[in-house]
Amino acid sequence: MSGLNKIAIQVGEFEFESEGSQLEVDEKFAQFKEEGLWNIITERLEEAKDMTVDATNATIQSNEIPERGMKFRTLVENCSLEGKPDQVLGALHYLRDIEGLNDCPPRVINALFEEANIDPPGNLSLYINRLREKDLLTIPKVHGDKNRFAELTEAGRKHLETKAKK
After folding, report:
1. Is the pTM value of this prediction over 0.70?
2. I need a surface site. Which of 73, 125, 137, 141 has the fewest CB within 10 A?
């Protein structure tokens, strides 16, 4: 190791660069901070961050994605739920565990997909039955065989957790 250190920071027209020993770089950076330029740079960065957040919010509003749809879409993206069966599993998790719904008829599930600007699954019964066969969903016996009361099994929750960690 050569013992040479270097730091370079540029934000707009403000620039700081220092090269030398760790002590020299630290002293020059401390002087730079004392001159008040560091405060200006951090303010500019904060302004840029705020402008990005504002632009993102404006984009979301212009796309007219409701907050509920945006939250579900975020869940789908963060958990990498690419296939419709996984998306249906995620929708049931969202509706039952996050929103607290016990009765999730197809129109409610499809509406959630539409609010998130994600193509609805279409034949929900097909997906729900496949997820039941894989022991990812169950329907409590008190509800007979009505898919609208499907809920995640422990294996279903673990499946979503595994997807989220990838």
Report:
1. no
2. 141
